[in-house]
Amino acid sequence: MTRSGFVIANLFRKRTRTILTLLSVIMAFLLFGLLQSVNTIFNAGADFVGATRLMVQARVSFTSPLPLSMVPKLEAIPGSRASRTSSGSAAYGSKTLP
Questions:
Q1: pLDDT digits (tens, 9 = 90+) for 47-75
Q2: Residues 83, 75: contact at Cβ < 8 Å?
Q3: pTM for the whole thing?
Protein backbone atom coordinates (compact mmCIF):
# COMPACT_ATOMS: atom_id res chain seq x y z
CA MET A 1 0.00 0.00 0.00
CA THR A 2 1.34 3.43 -0.94
CA ARG A 3 1.45 6.39 1.39
CA SER A 4 -1.32 8.25 -0.42
CA GLY A 5 -3.56 5.17 -0.33
CA PHE A 6 -2.89 4.81 3.39
CA VAL A 7 -3.79 8.48 4.01
CA ILE A 8 -7.00 8.29 1.98
CA ALA A 9 -8.07 5.07 3.65
CA ASN A 10 -7.59 6.55 7.11
CA LEU A 11 -9.33 9.81 6.20
CA PHE A 12 -12.57 8.05 5.42
CA ARG A 13 -12.35 5.61 8.30
CA LYS A 14 -13.94 8.21 10.60
CA ARG A 15 -16.02 10.52 8.42
CA THR A 16 -17.17 12.74 11.29
CA ARG A 17 -13.60 13.51 12.33
CA THR A 18 -12.61 14.27 8.72
CA ILE A 19 -15.56 16.60 8.19
CA LEU A 20 -14.97 18.46 11.47
CA THR A 21 -11.27 18.84 10.68
CA LEU A 22 -11.99 20.23 7.22
CA LEU A 23 -14.61 22.62 8.62
CA SER A 24 -12.19 23.89 11.25
CA VAL A 25 -9.48 24.52 8.63
CA ILE A 26 -11.97 26.37 6.40
CA MET A 27 -13.18 28.42 9.38
CA ALA A 28 -9.61 29.31 10.31
CA PHE A 29 -8.87 30.67 6.83
CA LEU A 30 -12.18 32.54 6.76
CA LEU A 31 -11.52 34.21 10.11
CA PHE A 32 -7.97 35.08 9.09
CA GLY A 33 -9.24 36.77 5.93
CA LEU A 34 -11.92 38.71 7.79
CA LEU A 35 -9.51 39.88 10.49
CA GLN A 36 -6.96 40.96 7.88
CA SER A 37 -9.61 43.10 6.18
CA VAL A 38 -10.58 44.71 9.51
CA ASN A 39 -6.89 45.35 10.23
CA THR A 40 -6.48 47.00 6.83
CA ILE A 41 -9.50 49.23 7.42
CA PHE A 42 -8.22 50.36 10.83
CA ASN A 43 -4.73 51.09 9.50
CA ALA A 44 -6.01 53.04 6.50
CA GLY A 45 -7.33 55.91 8.64
CA ALA A 46 -4.93 58.58 7.36
CA ASP A 47 -5.40 57.55 3.73
CA PHE A 48 -9.17 57.52 4.07
CA VAL A 49 -9.56 60.92 5.76
CA GLY A 50 -6.62 62.72 4.18
CA ALA A 51 -3.13 63.55 5.36
CA THR A 52 -3.90 67.26 5.65
CA ARG A 53 -6.69 66.86 8.18
CA LEU A 54 -6.14 66.74 11.93
CA MET A 55 -8.90 65.21 14.00
CA VAL A 56 -9.00 65.79 17.76
CA GLN A 57 -11.23 63.96 20.20
CA ALA A 58 -11.89 63.99 23.91
CA ARG A 59 -9.79 61.80 26.17
CA VAL A 60 -12.83 60.32 27.90
CA SER A 61 -14.81 59.09 24.89
CA PHE A 62 -14.95 59.68 21.17
CA THR A 63 -18.67 60.45 21.45
CA SER A 64 -18.32 63.30 23.95
CA PRO A 65 -17.49 66.62 22.27
CA LEU A 66 -14.58 68.86 23.11
CA PRO A 67 -15.35 72.08 25.00
CA LEU A 68 -16.03 75.13 22.83
CA SER A 69 -13.20 76.92 24.61
CA MET A 70 -10.80 74.65 22.68
CA VAL A 71 -11.79 76.13 19.28
CA PRO A 72 -9.51 79.21 19.51
CA LYS A 73 -6.64 77.04 20.73
CA LEU A 74 -7.08 74.64 17.81
CA GLU A 75 -7.31 77.48 15.30
CA ALA A 76 -4.10 78.97 16.70
CA ILE A 77 -2.09 75.90 15.65
CA PRO A 78 0.33 76.90 12.86
CA GLY A 79 -0.98 75.74 9.48
CA SER A 80 -4.56 75.43 10.69
CA ARG A 81 -7.03 76.98 8.28
CA ALA A 82 -10.38 76.21 9.93
CA SER A 83 -11.99 74.17 12.64
CA ARG A 84 -15.25 72.32 12.76
CA THR A 85 -17.19 70.55 15.49
CA SER A 86 -18.98 67.26 15.24
CA SER A 87 -21.78 66.17 17.52
CA GLY A 88 -21.27 62.79 19.11
CA SER A 89 -21.30 60.71 15.96
CA ALA A 90 -18.54 59.33 13.83
CA ALA A 91 -20.19 60.65 10.66
CA TYR A 92 -18.50 63.34 8.63
CA GLY A 93 -20.31 66.00 6.68
CA SER A 94 -20.32 66.00 2.91
CA LYS A 95 -19.27 69.65 2.72
CA THR A 96 -15.48 69.97 2.65
CA LEU A 97 -13.55 72.79 4.22
CA PRO A 98 -11.80 75.26 1.89
A1: 666 667 777 777 777 677 778 888 888 88
A2: yes
A3: 0.45
Q: In angstroms, rounded to a whole number, what is the distance separating the alpha carbons of residues 95 and 98?
A: 9
Cα-based distances in Å from 97 to 7, 55, 60, 81, 82: 65, 13, 27, 9, 7
Helices (H), the chain: 3-11, 15-43, 45-49, 70-75
Where are the domains positioned within the chain? 3-75
Question: Which amino acid is residue 1, in one-letter code?
Answer: M
Closest listed residue to residue 54, CA positions, set 79, 90, 72: 79
**How close are the terminal C-alpha atoms of the chain, in Å?**
76
Helix H or strand E segment including 28 = helix 15-43
